[in-house]
Design a protein that fits this description.
about 150 residues, alpha/beta, 5-stranded parallel beta sheet, 5 strands
Length: about 150
């Protein structure tokens, strides 16, 4: 049976699910049951390497590594931008200028370029509430717009 959707699950969702076993925990179980195809950007794993909470960081890293159908590296991303001839840094800077954090910009661009159905996050301020503006930027560069969802919306 094919997986219904290709998703990126932001670190905030996974962290809360592992931390308090409530918010996002159902989504994590759905991932483990192969209901979705999870794509994981390198930046999420890189971010974990900087955490002081080593045990939690390792549990989360293991989850991403075990359940991701693909981990998108910085090289994969740059090769994809070259392949379709888009200016990654121009898009990055424009998204930052509308208030999207740099680490979130990478998630947005990967979601667009790798045909992810949903970017799932709790981040309302820099992502969910800026979905329309993000879509306008992506359209201007001729790349796929994305759906940004809260865990409760999938």
């Amino acid at each position: 049976m094919p997986k219904s959707k290709k998703v990126i699950i932001d670190l905030d969702v996974v962290t809360l699910a592992f931390w308090d076993k409530k918010d996002g925990a159902k989504l994590i179980e759905r991932i483990k049951a192969n209901e979705f195809e999870m794509i994981s950007p390198y930046i999420l794993l890189d971010h974990l390497s900087k955490w002081d909470y080593r045990k939690l960081a390792e549990e989360i890293r293991e989850f991403y590594e075990k359940y991701s159908s693909e981990i998108i590296t910085a090289r994969n991303l740059l090769e994809k931008t070259e392949e379709i001839n888009i200016e990654y840094y121009k898009i990055l800077n424009e998204l930052i200028s509308i208030g999207v954090k740099e680490e979130d910009v990478v998630l947005v661009i990967i979601s667009s370029l790798f045909n992810v159905d949903n970017l799932i996050t709790f981040n309302r301020k820099h992502l969910k509430n800026k979905e329309k503006e993000i879509g306008e930027v992506l359209k201007r560069y001729g790349i796929k717009t994305i759906q940004i969802k809260l865990p409760s919306e999938v």
